[in-house]
Write a structure and sequence with these properties.
By secondary structure, the protein is mainly alpha-helical. It has a single domain, classed as Orthogonal Bundle (MetI-like fold), CATH 1.10.3720. It contains 11 helices and no strands. Helix 1 packs across helix 11 and helix 2 runs parallel beside helix 5. The longest helix has 34 residues. The protein is globular and about 70 Å long. 33% of the residues are buried.
């Protein structure tokens, strides 16, 4: 028990002082998450809108693929992306392997189906009269899409926060694509895995506390948004 107590004591000292290594790990995590979320929203929102708003041949198959990707193991995503961005892969010349950008590719693939599925469900749940009203008022194209997305904004925010939660807590693909390189691609989750394996509990606990705080804020935000959407 002594090593556990000592680990917590050292962890809180690290949190109070925010030593350089801990700071770099946290900053790298948020850089990766921000870059990943930008890609997730860029691809997920239009895909979700198209799936929820229009009927087209093959729509059911696309929805099935999207729903299947929700449960795709992260190590499989890491393996597939690794094959493409490694030196022997078709994107090897871009030198993305063991970089934050390379890690973000895996995270985008991980988070996009979440945003797409939630957005599609939100658009399908809108009042059927909304589309007719917008078209009567002369809305079309981009304006029609933006207005519909705005009406479904609470569910879309829930989708974005859900994707953020999965991305920030990701380990498998992050380890494979980033290599867990100190001062470069080490994130909160990969650092916890490494430090715990080495028996260095203090840093692992400190980073774990930060991750718990992020999860707590995420859950509070989701609860707030769900209540707002129901009012």
């Amino acid at each position: 028990m002594d090593f556990i107590v000592e680990g917590f004591i050292q962890a809180f000292r690290m949190l109070l002082t925010m030593d350089e290594e801990t700071t770099v790990i946290v900053v790298t995590t948020f850089k990766l998450t921000a870059l990943s979320m930008a890609g997730v929203l860029l691809f997920g929102l239009p895909t979700g809108f198209l799936l929820g708003y229009f009927d087209f041949p093959g729509k059911r198959a696309v929805r099935t693929v999207t729903d299947t990707l929700l449960a795709l193991p992260t190590v499989v995503i890491g393996l597939l992306v690794y094959a493409f961005i490694s030196r022997r892969g078709p994107l090897g010349d871009w030198e993305l392997l063991f970089t934050v950008r390379g890690m973000a590719i895996g995270q985008v693939i991980l988070g996009t189906p979440i945003v797409a599925a939630y957005t599609a469900a939100a658009i399908e749940g809108l009042d059927s009269r909304l589309r007719q009203t917008l078209m009567t008022l002369g809305a079309s194209g981009g304006k029609l899409a933006l207005t519909s997305l705005w009406e479904a904004r609470f569910m879309i925010l829930v989708a974005a926060l859900t994707a953020f939660g999965r991305i920030v807590g990701e380990v498998g693909s992050a380890m494979m694509l980033g290599g867990n390189i100190k001062w470069h691609t080490r994130t909160i989750t990969t650092a916890i895995t490494l430090e715990t394996g080495k028996g260095e509990f203090a840093l692992g606990i400190a980073l774990g506390v930060i991750l718990i705080l992020i999860s707590l804020l995420l859950n509070i935000s989701l609860t707030f948004l769900r209540r707002r959407s129901q009012n």
